[in-house]
């Protein structure tokens, strides 16, 4: 009795193995690299001070941005900003822009960074970068404007006084509609990816 059960189990195992082998032979073989998930495209850029005066006030300032393009697989891209030796203990607003410098054109507010006592910050935003755009009307026609430049502003109008003095200048580049001057932008680097 045990021998019949054992022989039946062996026969069933051979049948399953044969069926699996036949199915595998019909299926196209994918090399290991094709099965691995596609690595994210990475874009790196550096922001520079928006004026010679700001560059002189923050001579060692470094702002580096790394974008991992993962919107097609994750539904968002990763935008990491690392800042070193900026004016310390300040908030900066970050925008995607149509044009890096004035008049800036269309803009999208994406977040804030705050520097520590050494002027350093490290932030990561999960958002759509590669397809960032604005829709506007020009001559009665709706047009798409790609936002593939980056700008950073002093979030408080008084935060730029250490460098340019108290000019009384207030810009609208903060959530409360009161910011200082643009501190850094991407005018001297390649733009972000566009569709």
Give your account of this protein's structure.
Helix content is 22%, strand content 35%. The chain has 195 residues and is of the alpha+beta class. It has two domains: 2-34; 40-185, Immunoglobulin-like. The strands form two sheets. Strands 5-4-9-10-1-2-3-6 form an eight-stranded antiparallel sheet. A two-stranded antiparallel ribbon has the order 7-8. The longest helix is centred in the first third of the chain and has 25 residues, at 2-26. The chain is globular, with a radius of gyration of 27 Å. The protein starts with a helix and ends in a 10-residue tail after the last strand. Residues 1-37 have low confidence and may be disordered.
Can you summarize this structure?
With 195 residues, the chain is α+β, with helices and mostly antiparallel strands. It has helices at 2-26, 32-35, 52-57, 71-74, 161-164; strands spanning 41-49, 62-69, 77-84, 91-97, 107-114, 121-127, 133-138, 141-146, 149-154, 182-185.
Q: Can you tell me the CATH class of the largest domain?
A: Mainly Beta
Shape-level CATH architecture of the largest domain? Sandwich
- Beta-strand content: 35-45%
Assembly state here? single chain
Low-confidence sequence ranges: 1-37
Order of strands across the widest beta sheet? 5-4-9-10-1-2-3-6
Annotation field: number of helices: 5
Radius of gyration: 27 Å
CATH topology group of the largest domain = Immunoglobulin-like
* Biggest sheet record: 8 strands, antiparallel
The sequence of SSEs as H and E is HHEHEHEEEEEEEHE
Mean pLDDT across all residues, rounded? 83
Number of strands: 10
- The outline comes out as globular
In whole angstroms, the N-to-C terminal distance is 70 Å
Alpha-beta content class: alpha+beta
Question: What level of helicity do the residues show?
Answer: 10-25%
Overall tally of domains = 2
């Amino acid at each position: 009795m045990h021998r019949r059960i054992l022989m039946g189990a062996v026969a069933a195992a051979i049948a399953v193995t044969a069926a699996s082998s036949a199915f595998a032979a019909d299926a196209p073989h994918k090399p290991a690299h094709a099965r691995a998930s596609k690595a994210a495209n990475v874009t790196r850029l550096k922001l520079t001070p928006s004026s010679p005066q700001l560059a002189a006030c923050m001579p060692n300032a470094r702002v580096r941005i790394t974008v991992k393009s993962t919107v097609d697989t994750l539904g968002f891209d990763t935008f990491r900003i690392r800042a070193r030796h900026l004016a310390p203990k300040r908030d900066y607003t970050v925008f995607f822009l149509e044009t890096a410098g004035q008049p800036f054109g269309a803009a999208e507010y994406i977040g804030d960074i705050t520097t520590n006592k050494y002027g350093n910050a490290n932030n990561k935003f999960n958002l759509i970068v590669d397809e960032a755009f604005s829709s506007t009307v020009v001559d009665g026609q709706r047009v798409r404007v790609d936002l593939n430049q980056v700008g950073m502003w002093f979030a408080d109008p008084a935060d730029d006084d250490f460098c340019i003095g108290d000019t009384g200048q207030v810009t609208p580049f903060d959530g409360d509609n009161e910011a200082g001057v643009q501190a850094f932008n991407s005018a001297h680097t390649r733009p972000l990816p566009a569709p």
